[in-house]
Structure formats: C-alpha cells, structure tokens
Amino acid sequence: MGQIYVNLNVMMARRGISAGELADRIGITPANLSILKNNKARAIRFSTLEALCRELNCQPAELLEYREDSASAKSFKE
Amino acid sequence: MTKNENGGPVHNARNIRITRVCVVILLIICAVMLMRGPWLTAAFVRGIKAHDFLLSDKQYAFGVTIAIGYFCGSLALLMLIMMFRFLGRLSQGDVFTRQNVQTLHRISLCCIFAAGGCLLMGILSYWMFSALAAGILFMALIVRVVRDAFERAVSMKDELDYTI
After folding, report:
1. pTM to 2 decimals?
2. Nearest-CA residue of chain B relative to A39?
3. Fewest CB within 10 angstroms: A52, B7, B120, B163, which?
4. CATH 1.10.260.40 fits A3-77, yes or no
C-alpha cells in the first residue's frame, strides 16, 4: 500500500521560508505545520492547501506526492 | 445558549454535578451495606419464607447469601468509584478519550459479573434477584453500546485532530 507524502520541506527550502513564518502566513499553528511536514497528517483541507500554494507560489502537485511502500523504502535506502 | 468553561452547554455541567452527587450517595449506601453485611444477610435470611430457598439449610443459605452479597457489593463499589472518576473527567472536558472507553468497558464487565451473582442468588435464594439480574444485564448492554459510541467518537476525533 502506498502513501501520500507532503513535500513541504523541499518547497520551504526552495522558497527560503521558515516553518514559523509559513505557519503564521497560512494561519495554522506551528504544531500543525509540523504534523504536515512530518507526514503525520491524516487529511489536508482544501483551504490549507490553497494557502500553502499561495504562500509557496506552487501547484498542489508540487506539494503532494504518492509513493508506493517499496518505492519509498528504496528512496530512503538511497 | 450559555456555555460553560469547557465549551459545553451549562446544563451539561449541572447534569454531571447532580449525577456525581448521586454516585457519592450510592457509594456511601454501598459502603454502609458492605460494612453491615452480616446483619443485613441475617435479617434477609430471617425475613424470606423457607420455601423461597432452594437451600433449605438456613446456615448454608446465610453463607451463600453473604458470599454472593459481598461479591456483588464489591463490584458495585468498584463500579461507582470508576463512575465517579469518569464523571470527573467529563466535567473537565476530557470526553472522547481512550481512558473513558476503557472505563466504560470495565463498568460493563462489573455489571455482567454482578448480574451473574444476582442470577445465582435468584436460583439459590430469593427468585426476585433474577429480575434484578435481568435489569443489571440490560444496564451492561446499554453501557456497552455507549462504550462503542465513545470508541467510534475517539477514532473520529483522532481523524479530526490530524486533519490540517
């Protein structure tokens, strides 16, 4: 079974924005942003995704990625 | 609607307070009954007509009644203490937690065992205890249904907590 990964770290590094600043800009708590960053979230609201895309100037597809279990295991090994 | 400090309606807090007071009263009654167990059992054995007992030997009937009585009384005491703590957590706003699900599960188990004790009393002693056993068993079923509802609510809360 695969899993959806949120590539927030990558996008944040590209845009040079800190977690605290991003949380402040999109109106969620740093704790919730951390849940999102660490792929612990069960679901993401459209409003949150919309705010993330707006602040990081990207498309949802750039933030979300589907990985098969074996594929994700391989990428971790690499 | 007026809200209390936990965000729930004020009448909810009042209901919990009233229930806690009732639980405390029942706890005191239960403790007194347990302390006065031998006296109560002797009065009960004296008061019941001989033909109501399967156990014709009064001495034996006393022993069986007091043993089952203490068993059921201890379960009632345990259940009331768990109920009191459960209500305390509800009043603090900790409603849909795994601890509450576990407490409800234990309360239902206490009810089932107490119903078993009462049924035994109904068979061996006075038949009216069988009716009491049916009532306690019904209560156990209701508590189990509430427990299942709490369990579902806990998983829904988990889902909601991790929705960003």
Report:
1. 0.73
2. B162
3. B7
4. yes
